[in-house]
Amino acid sequence: MVKFRIIFFLTIYLILDLIAFQGFYVLTKNYSLSTIQWVNYSYWTVSLFCYFLILFSQFTRWPGWNKYFRTYSISILFIIIASKLVLDIFVVTADVIIFLQWALMKIFHLFSKSGLHALTLNYSEFIIKMGLIAASILFFTLIYGMLFNTYKYQVKKLKLILPNLPVSFDGFKIVQISDLHTGSFLNSKPLTRVVNIINEQKADIVFFTGDLVNGKHQEVLAYIDILGRIESKFGVFSIFGNHDYGDHTNWQNMEAKQNNIQKLKEVHKKLGWDLLWDEHRTIKKNEEHITVIGVQNCRSRGLISYGSLKKATENINYSSVNILLSHDPSLWKKEVIKDYPNIDLTFSGHTHGMQFGIDIMGIKWSPVQYFYKEWAGLYQKNNQYLYTNSGLGFIGYHGRVGILPEITVIELRKT
Q1: β-strand partners of 274
Q2: Which of 335, 258, 256 is nearest to 295 (CA)?
């Protein structure tokens, strides 16, 4: 099955590669022979590196290789493929125009063959040139994001008015972090800075909304001492994300997978985090209280569903304000606003903002919004709110473009 998947992927990539090469061929065909040869050799050298890397990662003990080599190799592979894909779109568009030219000449005979042919070829070359420019911009933008934005942490602060908030909780400060993916970090320095930033906020409570690891509990072991230093008056409450169950990891058997889940649950305990496993807690202050509910990851986009909001709220004594932790923001529309009117505020993560997009001067866009409507920031439906955190970590592409790693600070106010 694994070999079939690799063969299928390589076949698709070869097709995309040939289409992209067509673009380089069209733009260099009138150059000198030496220039054409240099372009051809350069192009296929890079392509062969990509094929080699794909095969190398699948048929060697990939996790045993140097982490820096693995991380940056996969990121560069992603950047090259993404850039070629953009060029492919323009090349295919140019090919469609040439086909339409042929159709016009065959069916309508509206233009002279030579005149329309020249016009179409010039227009097609122009489109391919635009494609090469677009692909180059994406390539260098992704390189920049990998080199400079990976650990460019931003603190997003906002105040949220909840009229039913108990007086004792007026000004209650919540810090949310999400999607650490500790297995993607190369050393402990960035996480040390993260913890320092969190502690500078003087939070009343900290929420972690899932994906502590990429798949295996061993990934976080080197960072337990650092993450265990997170401070808040009422502690840290956490949940599992989809990656924490190891569904994206190859296991020898189901027992190994279940053992990994148990070990990761123990890690949360060592960190001093209160892991909510389809359950809820009451936070008391001056004889008043709010409720925190936590669900395991709930199914979305083909993922396995583990959580149950019904179970998490079983025998619950709702407070005047109730907060839900759900890794996947899809649960908010799917269940919360439909069947759980007592849940005032939901915290989620999962999307990463796709680690690529625009978030500046009120303009917010990312390709992930076509898959998740509530993909980043604050959303409201009547008196219920959802906040989707863009995550602190990264997976696959070792970088961020436009959507920076985030630490969220929300202050609850009564008025």
Answers
A1: 237
A2: 335
* CA 210/CA 197 separation, integer angstroms: 19
pTM of this prediction? Answer: 0.91
Alpha-carbon distances, residue 355 vs 214, 219, 242 (angstroms): 16, 21, 17
Q: How many CA atoms lie within 13 A of 407 on its CB side?
A: 20
Looking from the CA of 330 toward its CB, the CA atoms found within 13 Å total: 17
- Give domain 154-413's CATH number out of 3.40.50.2000, 3.90.79.10, 3.60.21.10, 3.10.20.310: 3.60.21.10
**Distance from chain centroid for Cα 288:** 38
Do 206 and 232 contact (CB within 8 A), yes or no?
Answer: yes
Give me the long-range contacts of 161-165 (CB less than 8 A, separation at least 24): 161/413, 161/414, 161/415, 162/321, 162/344, 162/345, 162/412, 162/413, 162/414, 163/414, 163/415, 164/320, 164/321, 164/344, 165/290, 165/320, 165/321, 165/412, 165/413, 165/414
pLDDT higher than 60, residue 118: no
- Indicate whether 29 pLDDT > 90: no
Pairing of strands 288-294, 154-161: unpaired
CA distances from 339 to 132, 168, 171, 331, 332 (A): 50, 28, 29, 11, 10
Q: Where are the beta strands (DSSP E) in 195-266?
A: 205-208, 236-238
| Domain limits, the chain | 2-149, 154-413
| C-alpha atoms less than 13 angstroms from C-alpha of 84 in its C-beta half-sphere | 23
Average pLDDT over residues 202-219: 97
CB-based contact 414:167 (threshold 8 Å)? yes
Burial class (CB in 10 A: 0-12, 13-18, 19+), 203: buried
Per-residue pLDDT reduced to its tens digit, 385-397: 999 999 999 999 9
Report yes or no: 285 and 169 within 8 Å, Cβ to Cβ.
Answer: yes
CB atoms within 10 A of CB 40: 14
The pLDDT tens digits for 229-284 are 999 999 999 999 999 999 988 888 999 999 999 999 999 999 999 999 999 999 99
What are the structure tokens assigned to 221, written together? 């072991």
* Other Cβ atoms closer than 10 A to 255: 9
In terms of DSSP H, where are the helices of 108-179?
113-144
- In this predicted model, which residue has the larger pLDDT, 413 or 115? 413
The three-state secondary structure class of 285 is strand
